[in-house]
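Researcher: I need the complex structure. Ligand is 4-(N,N-dimethylamino)cinnamoyl-COA. Inputs:
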Amino acid sequence: MTDMPVLRRDADGVRILTVDRPDKLNALDRQTLAALDAAFAAAAEDAAVRAIVLTGSGTKAFVAGADIAEMNALTAIEGREFSLLGQRLMRRIERMPKPVLAMVNGYALGGGLELAMACHLRIAADSARLGQPEVNLGLVPGFGGTQRLLRLAGRAAALELCLLGTPVDATRAQQLGLVNRVVPAADLEAETMKLAAQLAASAPLALRGVLDAVVVGGECGLEEGLQFETAQFALLFASEDMREGTSAFVEKRKPLFRNR
Ligand code: DAK
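Model: Output:
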């Protein structure tokens, strides 16, 4: 059922992955990075999984960053491996063919915020705190934080968070465009699962088209992005789900999407 230290649970087409190192505020050591990478690879392959929710064990932390104690003891060669492992995981999540929601239930710091930013949507508890405190350790973000923060929230926010290293609360994070929704901590799971269920019932090929177009579009020029969107749009005319969705509208009924 699990690649420890990542727990796995399925509910109606939604896979819930939980980083399970609560004693270390779910800090990412090499074993956890590798387990997450394997868990996301498996979720990508599993047709029964329509959406993924990523969270951390306990109520205190989503993920409090890369494991500082482990990093402290790494050689340069091991540090390179650590970096490659983390960057590969973040890229895998970002390029997942199905939507990934970060359920930010507490601290999302350093590598933890980088992990949340690689997800497609972020729902935060009002008690969450988010930040890139690496400068306080004599480091810069190493799992793509400077780049994803810049693209997600702009230069002013990226420089504020990465230069000062001071975490912000969930409300400020939402103002910066860093999180999509802020909800009372007690409602976090229900609200996140509601969104995940909506995505799990939606047309998977269309969702994949959106994910591909937005992620690729964020990395290329407008002209290429528009061409890519047109190609995605045209491709969906070959899908049964597009016929079903448009027929259901015309026939005034709910569509039933079959991922075909
Ligand atoms: N790593 C390892 N252990 C951590 C941890 C972390 N990031 N964060 C917390 N813990 C551990 C604590 O050491 C403590 O363990 P014990 O002492 O009980 O064994 C336990 O979790 C509970 O934490 P605290 O006792 O500190 O709890 P508090 O409520 O007092 O404070 C806190 C909560 C989140 C404010 C505090 O724990 C904290 O400041 N944690 C560190 C946050 C942080 O700086 N995060 C960024 C980590 S640096 C790179 C790749 C990636 C990165 C860098 C380079 N390259 C490839 C080069 C990424 C770097 C980071 O993410």
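Model: Summary of the prediction. The chain has eleven helices and ten strands.
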